[in-house]
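hiii so my PI (J.) wants the whole complex modelled not just the main chain, which honestly fair. so below is everything: two entries, each one labled with what it is. i double checked the lines twice but i was tired so who knows lol
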Amino acid sequence: MLFTEDELSRLKRVRMRDTRVGRGSVNGRRVSRQTGAGEEFHGHRAYSHGDDIRRVDWNAFSRLDQLFVKLYEAPGRLRLHLVLDNTLTMDFGAWNKLQFAKRLLGVAGWIALANADKIHVSGLRDSKPTSATLGHESAMLETLDHIRPSKFPPDKGLLSNVTNAGRDALVIFASDFQRPDAMEVLEHLRLHSVRCVAVGVFSQDEIEPTMDGWQRMLPVGQDAFKARIDTATLAAYRQEVIRCRDNVAASVKNLGCAWLDARSDLALSEMLDKLATGGVIRAST
Amino acid sequence: MIGTVVAAIEFARPEWLWSLIVVPLFFVAWWFARRFRKQRVTYGDIWRKVTGSEQPRNWRKRLRTILTWIASTCFLVGLGLFAGGITQPETRQPSALVVVIDNSVSMLAQDENRRTRLALAQDRIAQESAKLTDEDVVAFVWFADGRALASRWLSPDSEPPDISITTTPPDWASAQTLLEKLTPPRREPSFERKTWVLTDDVAACPLRSAVVESVGVPVTNNYLSELRVDNDGALVAKSSLGSPIVSIDGKRLDPASIRPRELTGRLRVSIPLEDAIDRDNNAILECRHSALSRVLVLHQNDSEPNLLLLETLRSMLPDATVVASSKPAPCDLLVQDAVSASNAEARYRLRFAVGGPQNTANAGLIQREDIRAPFMVPDFSLLEGSAVTLNANDDTVLLRHLKRGPLIVLRQNTLDIGFDVAESSVLQDASGLLLLMRWLDHIRQQMVETLPLVLNVGESRTVQLHGMPPYRATLSRPMFEGAATILQFGQRGDWTQFGPLPYAGLWEIRDANGNVIGRTWAHWSDATEQSASVSTGETFTAKSTDEDNPTPIGTWLLVVALITLLAEWIGWAIGVTE
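here's the output for the full assembly
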């Protein structure tokens, strides 16, 4: 289980913030391209057999002597895509990054479902996204829990499925951005004008490693090598990691995505604060 | 204690002990590998950058892959070949192996497993013959009658000849001569000649250009060092370990109390102790003291034998075999009752009413001669019964008829009595019985040792024989067939030289008719030959078909796999490969 009962009850007090995701910001409004039974007039179209006769614009009929049906925008409904980069490097750390990312996305998904949003949950490198609606929070969490680390590249079917939603979609993408293809995913979303919140997950172990002496380094997904580690080496490593992460954050923002930096040992409350600080949610009073 | 245990360890394959070097290499590599702590990290590129570690070069990976493939392939192929028993094709020259086997008595010495040296030698032959191929040939040389004998050239899988033990010490000089004449068959390429001697006395073997291998372990041998019958007729038997006590017919007896001349039948003399060579612990003496052991009462075809005569003879000769027959046969005493004279072979003859015209003897008509017979002739009171007159020109007349000539005559070995047993009271009257008894006693007292009970090998003795010459002496259990076991000698009735007997064992002496007239044990007590010591020699090793590569191909491939695997592992441990 990703959450305890206490954590779940606390999540219920939080709701999704009604925002519109803008460039470099998560502020905005929910919009929908669908027409329906809303209040805001959207336009006309020619009457066709089967249309509700109550929606006929009789004023237009009197002026133009033709039947038109008035169209209204449907109530806004956010399509939330929770995409977890399940690359191998995510499965790392005493506080496992993959597990943390699952909890983070689980928080966002839980709050979204509590506000009647439809969400899609998927692993970036898996081919079967799972959708969940109100009342199916458990299934959503279970789907997240079942995502396993994978060495495969991002699934193209998944990306096309996400981009089809267009402006109606909001993607929360959790990754450590250690593989270049993670950034390519954000570029792909930008091309299709999909709003995205990128969560950069990192582990304290990889930022502040503690080792000394001869080591047989086993980089995740790469070939092993031997090295002698000392204080200077560790300092140089930390400097390089920080620079690398800064570059990632800058690149993400340049792509128009919101950026959240999350350490894998955050507790639930800190996690909520992080999401609230980033404008993804707001805390309920 | 530990040193003793270590010293007692024997390795079945000492040539492979070098492979134990793998053990320290293993531990060194293990220690080297343990120096590095495994550390799982992310940001591998950054780590490589800050530590200066280059991305592993392709050749390192390829080297490890190649070594892995070589090791795996060699292991699998080697395992298959090893399981299949496939070896390299033979490349050596075919060999002609001559195996010289010392089959003297000492080769019967047994080790702690009760296996004789001869059996151990046969095991060694089988062991080395297994290395030979169908292209090779083998010949065997052994000894009999002191001379060397050779088999024909045999294939290695042929059955070797049945070689028996010979009591004559091997004549190595004759073996050397025989080996020089024993040339292998011609072929291309020619045979490589090898000579392999298996003996327990390496020092005594002078064969040149031969591998002389010792067989067996030194043991203590106890054997009959002396066996003879002294002038008093007592048996003297001694063992080589000095024990004067021997077992005779399973009973522990003092041989001085044994007088074989008083016995009839076979007497087994043996040392009752368990011994390394048990065959030289026994001797069989054929005790046949009595010259009257077989008595034949000859009667006519159409009549029954005279029961009174039979009973009388049986009571007077209790040790003899008295049989009645209408057909003559060789015997010691031929008794004829009113039957025409027979020329059946017999040492002594007793004839009743045989020969001459039939007459009736009346009382008062018989006159006892005053003669000097070799025994005391009793006064005759027999005055009744039918009688025939006998021809007695130069013979001793014991009783004469007043009118018709002699009635009882003693010839050299014949007692003629003119009275018919059935028609007279010759066997019912005390005088007749007394005459017969004294004559038989005289024969016993004049008994001559016709054949010695025991005679040392190589010795001879003068004996008097009474059979039909010529006489033939053969071993009762000959070790091999041939004229060498037959000894011909003697003239009838003459003192003749008996022997020398060349081989130890029980000899049967037969006359011209093939009848066994006696048996003599030829005793052999050569202390040098019967000693059970062993002198150490070389060890022969037959050149196997793959001597240059003595192990199968599969084994070599397994070794290559092991070495490659080790190289790969060490290379990985020291960082040569990735």
